[in-house]
Each structure stands twice: as structure tokens, then as C-alpha cells.
């Protein structure tokens, strides 16, 4: 291999390793945003000869800089932009220096193009906000700074432009910096830097200027090359929203996605949402090989050790670091549609790779982006921003936008036109005591009847399970309670909502005045059946552990709970086994006549005729697993 080939290869390898900074420019009309970017490209020697020739030619024909080269023409490509000397749409440019690669978004300054600026800012790490030194901090400056803060950009470079028109005055510059600091104190922008410059003349853009010897900071390009942005990414919370399931052969099943945040390692224990199934990472596959770990913003394919159901829209996370899983959340919404918001519309919501329908339940307030004043409104129009409450048809897996931009952002899509009508940033938390109450006549009727406003299918989507009562019957000592509590623990570990009701706990409170006579036993079990029914109505799996000795009383319990929710488990243990497993010596006390009405001794126990599951003492170690298989077959849990 020749020396020149090696040099080229070395150069390309080094270029590949350079990190990328995405930044935007924002400012009022004629503040010089496009001129600044053009000057950056020109002074950093990143223009080709044909581009320079075209720029000189266009500057004479349609430029707005007099005898000077109009660098704005490098960015303003639309005919209307060149005619008016303004930026209308977002213009992107790529360039590279020896230290870093850059993608620049030149965004428009007009208020009516707020949505264009939001688009450009959505992927930016840093914002360069320009101020005309002759005008100082104006309304548009505050508006652009607020939008940058809203969109989670942590670094602002305030470029005080046109210093040549104020005789490079330090006093003017210091006054602008002071005013701007006072405004940003209200906002969440941790890193603000200030640069006095002239984009047209090139002062402090790429090289430091002799015209401002009082300025001792970096040039703008030097700051852009060295701004530290790596810590802005979230490397703590693993969020891997599955985009595609890859199945090229019968023996390979991988899940492709872009790592939204966190770090995923080979061998990591992971959980798949919403099923809550767990497994371990078998391998991580990229175009270049199989690394031991992956991090944002890498796009990789992950394989798991276990064959569990994973599909597009699911999210792979670490089991002890879960996102919020809610249908309702508050968000800041930027309305981007020409048509005003119709609050009664069921929108499509797209969040990472997950999509469903959603409605806007309430608009808390609208923010005036020029004054930051809040006002009550019934709708939002184009370019307006408001704080809203959104309810999705199924749980979303999200983090607050301030913590994780990838999992905290979403878009709303109009169901009729399929236009993107809004972008949203999810807030930190929803205050449940301020949820809106929209009571219709139908709702009032349901409330009067005691039915409630939440439908069974809503509970199913929320909990990922169907309501059911597992009624475990058998003689005292047959192992009912052990199975009941072990089953509850297994369901809890898998993410289910399950409650255990057993004789000792109920008789210590609710049935404290009842004895064990047939009449009182029937009343005791009637009460339990109604508790189970109420819990089932709230979407809860209820596990009941009671002797319930006769077929007749079990049929009554089944009628109260409802046939569709009632599932009987029979612990088929003979009296001798039960005696040996009697921890309270009840059999001995009954035989000595010290207690009465103990089934199997002085009261008959009738084995159930049609139990859903029958378990023998020999199946004690596998009893819970058998019940879980039954729940899965009946699509009770998991759904």
C-alpha cells in the first residue's frame, strides 16, 4: 500500500471518529443568521471554487450587502428568500473542521414560522441566537430563547452581531449581556456564552478580531469546536424502542432499533414492555461486528436468550429502571397545523415506534411566546404553544422530556388529513388531583348505579390482565394458603395486580362476629364473594383460599362473582395428609370436642365436581406453575 493511500486512509479514519455537533441559528429578521453561517463556511475554507464563483456572481446580481459578498445567499436558496433578504424555511448545511463535524440548521426569525424553528431545533444540541447590537434584547430574542429552552437545548451561544455598526463598543455589548442574563434566569438553560462579532466583516467568527481588544474569550468557531455536549445524552436509563423484528432464518430472531438512551451490554438482564417478560441479551449486532455494548445514538440489532414475544412498538429496558407507563400525561404542545385544534378530535399519537389514538382532555393554558404570559383558551391555532392534558388509548412508555428527549417527545397526527398537526414535550409529572372531570348524562347514570366510569377493557389495557377470581377449595391443611400466597408472589413479580383473601385475615375483621356454624359459614363466604366481585370490577385478579365445604355454597359464590370470572382450584388432599399438615392442631381439637363444625371431622366436605384445576399433594412444587399456565391459556395473564 502506497504512502498516499495510507495517508488518505488515516485521514478518513480520523474523520470518522470526529463527533458531530448539530446546532441551529435563530434571531430576528435581518439579524444576520444566514450571513453568519456563510462567513463560517467561507473563513473556515469549506467552500469549493465553483461555490465561491457562484456566490460572487449572485452577490452582485441579487445580494443585500452592497459591495461586500452577501454570504447569506449560501443559505437562502428559495426565490422568495433572496428577493426579500430573509429566511423562510429551515436550511441545513454540513461542514467539518479538523476537530468536529457540524450540521447547521438556519431557522427563520418570523413569528409565523415558529413551527419551522421548532423543526430545526428538535435535533439540535446547541443554539446560536443572534442579536443586532443596534437593537439589543428584543421581543424576538426572548421568543427564540424560550423556544430553545422549551425544546431542551442546554447550550446557547449569544452572538451579538453587527458590532461594526456600534463602533465595537464594549459598553453596548456589556449592556446586552446583562439584559439577556436577567431574562434567561427565568428559564432552564444551564450554559449560556456570549460573543461580540460582525458576521459581515468576520470579526470573532473564525478568528479573534483586533477591533475588540477588550474581548478575551474564544472565537465563535473555536467554541463550537470545543463545546462539551456528550454529557447531554442520557446514558443512565436504557430505552430501546423496538422498530423492527428481523427473522431472516428460522433460527435467528433479532430486534432492530436505535438506542434512545442508556447503555445496553451483552449479558444484561432486560425486560420487555408492556408484557414485562424478562430475558438476557444474547448478542448485539452491528454492520461492523458484534460489540459488547451499544449506546445512543447507535442503531443496532439485539438478540435475546429466551424466545419471548417482542414486536414493533415494544420497549426493551432494564428491569429495575422502568419508564413511566401511563395513558394520561401533561405536555407542552406546539400546534403546527394550518387548521386550529379541535379538542374533540381523536388524534393519532406517534411516540418513538409506538402509535395509538389519543385525545386532548384539557388545555391548561396558552403561552404567549413573546411575553411568556399565560392565558386560558379553548383551542390552539398555528404556531401557538400550550400546556395540555392528553389521554392515550393505551399506556405509553415515557420519561419527562427534561430527562430524556427521545422518550419525552411525540407528535400528533390528524386522522383525516394525516398531517403532523402538533409536536409535544412530556412534562415531569401529572397531578392527579387536577385531572379534568367531564361528566356526561351517561356518566351520571353509571355513577348512580355504582358501575363506575372505567370500562373493563380499560383496566385490561392498563394492567395487562383480565379480571378473575381463583377460588381455592380443599380441606384444612391441604395447602390452600401456601399455593395462594406463592401464586400472588409469582403474579406480582410478573407485573400483575393480584390480591389474596384467606379465612384467617377475613375472620379477624370483616367476619369477626361469625362462628363456624353452617349458617354463619355461608354468610362469611357470601361476604367474601362480594369482595371478590368488587375487586374483579376494578380489574384485579383475586385469589380466595377457603374450605367452602359444600357444592351448594360454592355455586352461590360462583353466581355472586359471575360465571365468566370464577375459576375453581381444588386441593385434592386426603384427611391423613391434612392431619400431618395441620399447623393449628384443629383436627385434634375437633376430635377432643373442643371445637365444632370442622369439615372432614364432624361436618361433611363435598369435593367439587367441575374444578378448573385439581392439584394433589404430590404436585405441591409445580402447583403455581400449573395455575399460571392455566391463566395464560385462558388469556387472563398475560393478555
Say what the CATH topology of the largest domain is: Rossmann fold
Mean pLDDT: 85
Tell me the CATH architecture of the largest domain. Answer: 3-Layer(aba) Sandwich
Q: Tell me the helix content.
A: 25-40%
- Regions with pLDDT < 50 over 5+ consecutive residues? 76-88, 435-442
Euclidean distance between termini CA atoms: 61 Å
Q: Please write the CATH class name of the largest domain.
A: Alpha Beta
Q: What would you give as the CATH superfamily of the largest domain? A: P-loop containing nucleotide triphosphate hydrolases
Adjacency order of strands in the biggest sheet: 7-15-11-12-14-9-8
Percent range for β-strand residues: 25-35%
Main β-sheet: number of strands, strand sense, barrel status? 7 strands, antiparallel
Structural class: alpha/beta
Quantity of strands, as a count: 27
What is the 3D shape?
elongated
**How many structural domains?**
4
What is this structure, in a nutshell?
The protein is α/β, with parallel strands linked by helices. The chain has 17 helices and 27 strands.
Describe this structure in words.
With 639 residues, the protein is of the alpha/beta class. The chain has four domains: 16-232, 3-Layer(aba) Sandwich (Rossmann fold), CATH 3.40.50.300; 240-317, Translation factors (Elongation Factor Tu (Ef-tu), domain 3), CATH 2.40.30; 324-434, Translation factors (Elongation Factor Tu (Ef-tu), domain 3, Beta Barrel), CATH 2.40.30; 456-633, Rossmann fold. The protein has 17 helices and 27 strands. Strands 7-15-11-12-14-9-8 form a seven-stranded antiparallel sheet, with no helix packed on it. Strand 5, helix 7 (170-184) and strand 6 (191-196) form a beta-alpha-beta unit. Helix 13 packs parallel to helix 14. The chain is elongated and about 110 Å long. The two termini are 61 Å apart. The model is unreliable at 76-88 and 435-442 (pLDDT under 50).
Amino acid at each position: 500500500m502506497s504512502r498516499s493511500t495510507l495517508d488518505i486512509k488515516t485521514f478518513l479514519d480520523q474523520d470518522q471518529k470526529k463527533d458531530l455537533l448539530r446546532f441551529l441559528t435563530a434571531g430576528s429578521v435581518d439579524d444576520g443568521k444566514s450571513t453568519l453561517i456563510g462567513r463560517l463556511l467561507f473563513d473556515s475554507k469549506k467552500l469549493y471554487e465553483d461555490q465561491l464563483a457562484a456566490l460572487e456572481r449572485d452577490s452582485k446580481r441579487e445580494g443585500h450587502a452592497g459591495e461586500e459578498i452577501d454570504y447569506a445567499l449560501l443559505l437562502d436558496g428559495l426565490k422568495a428568500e433572496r428577493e426579500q433578504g430573509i429566511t423562510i424555511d429551515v436550511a441545513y448545511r454540513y461542514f467539518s473542521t479538523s476537530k468536529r463535524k457540524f450540521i447547521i440548521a438556519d431557522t427563520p426569525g418570523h413569528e409565523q414560522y415558529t413551527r419551522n424553528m421548532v423543526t430545526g431545533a428538535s435535533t439540535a444540541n446547541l443554539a446560536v441566537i443572534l442579536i443586532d447590537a443596534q437593537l439589543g434584547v428584543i421581543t424576538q430574542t426572548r421568543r427564540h430563547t424560550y423556544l430553545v429552552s422549551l425544546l431542551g437545548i442546554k447550550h446557547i451561544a449569544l452572538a451579538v452581531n453587527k458590532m461594526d455598526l456600534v463602533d465595537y463598543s464594549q459598553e453596548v455589548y456589556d449592556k446586552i449581556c446583562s439584559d439577556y442574563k436577567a431574562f434567561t434566569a427565568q428559564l432552564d438553560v444551564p450554559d449560556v456564552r456570549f460573543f461580540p462579532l460582525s458576521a459581515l466583516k468576520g470579526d470573532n467568527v473564525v478568528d479573534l478580531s483586533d477591533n475588540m481588544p477588550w474581548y478575551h474569550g474564544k472565537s465563535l468557531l473555536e467554541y463550537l469546536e470545543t463545546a462539551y455536549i456528550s454529557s447531554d445524552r442520557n446514558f443512565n436509563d436504557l430505552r430501546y424502542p423496538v422498530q423492527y423484528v428481523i427473522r431472516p432464518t428460522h433460527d435467528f430472531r433479532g430486534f432492530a432499533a436505535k438506542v434512545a438512551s442508556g447503555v445496553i451490554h451483552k449479558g444484561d438482564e432486560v425486560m420487555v414492555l408492556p408484557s414485562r417478560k424478562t430475558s438476557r441479551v444474547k448478542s448485539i449486532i452491528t454492520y461492523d461486528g458484534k460489540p459488547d455494548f451499544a449506546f445512543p445514538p447507535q442503531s443496532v440489532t439485539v438478540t435475546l436468550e429466551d424466545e419471548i414475544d417482542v414486536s414493533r412498538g415494544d420497549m426493551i429496558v432494564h428491569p429495575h429502571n422502568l419508564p413511566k407507563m401511563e395513558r394520561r400525561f401533561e405536555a407542552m404542545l406546539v400546534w403546527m397545523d394550518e387548521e386550529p385544534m379541535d379538542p374533540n378530535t381523536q388524534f393519532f399519537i406517534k411516540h418513538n415506534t409506538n402509535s395509538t389514538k389519543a385525545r386532548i382532555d384539557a388545555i391548561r393554558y396558552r403561552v404567549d411566546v413573546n411575553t411568556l404570559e399565560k392565558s386560558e383558551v379553548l383551542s390552539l391555532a398555528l404556531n401557538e404553544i400550550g400546556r395540555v392534558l392528553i389521554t392515550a388509548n393505551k399506556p405509553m412508555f415515557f420519561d419527562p422530556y427534561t430527562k430524556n428527549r427521545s422518550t419525552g417527545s411525540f407528535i400528533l397526527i390528524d386522522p383525516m388529513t394525516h398531517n403532523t398537526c402538533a409536536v409535544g414535550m412530556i412534562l415531569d409529572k401529572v397531578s392527579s388531583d387536577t385531572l379534568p372531570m367531564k361528566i356526561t348524562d351517561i356518566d351520571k347514570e353509571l355513577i348512580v348505579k355504582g358501575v363506575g366510569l372505567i370500562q373493563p377493557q380499560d383496566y385490561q389495557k392498563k394492567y395487562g390482565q383480565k379480571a378473575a377470581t381463583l377460588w381455592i377449595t380443599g380441606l384444612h391443611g391441604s395447602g390452600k394458603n401456601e399455593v395462594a400466597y406463592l401464586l400472588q408472589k409469582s403474579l406480582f413479580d410478573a407485573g400483575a395486580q393480584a390480591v389474596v383473601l384467606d379465612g384467617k385475615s377475613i375472620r379477624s375483621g370483616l367476619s369477626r362476629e361469625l362462628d363456624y356454624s353452617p349458617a354463619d359459614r355461608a354468610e362469611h363466604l357470601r361476604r367474601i364473594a362480594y369482595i371478590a366481585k368488587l375487586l374483579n370490577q376494578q380489574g384485579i385478579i383475586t385469589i380466595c383460599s377457603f374450605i367452602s365445604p359444600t357444592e351448594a355454597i360454592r355455586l352461590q359464590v360462583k353466581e355472586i362473582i359471575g360465571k365468566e370470572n370464577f375459576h375453581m382450584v381444588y386441593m385434592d388432599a386426603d384427611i391423613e395428609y391434612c392431619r400431618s399438615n395441620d399447623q393449628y392442631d384443629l383436627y385434634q381439637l375437633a376430635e377432643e370436642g373442643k371445637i365444632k363444625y370442622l369439615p372432614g371431622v364432624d361436618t361433611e366436605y363435598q369435593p367439587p365436581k367441575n374444578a378448573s384445576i385439581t392439584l394433589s399433594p404430590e404436585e405441591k412444587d409445580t402447583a403455581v406453575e400449573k395455575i399460571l399456565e392455566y391463566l395464560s391459556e385462558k388469556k387472563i395473564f398475560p393478555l
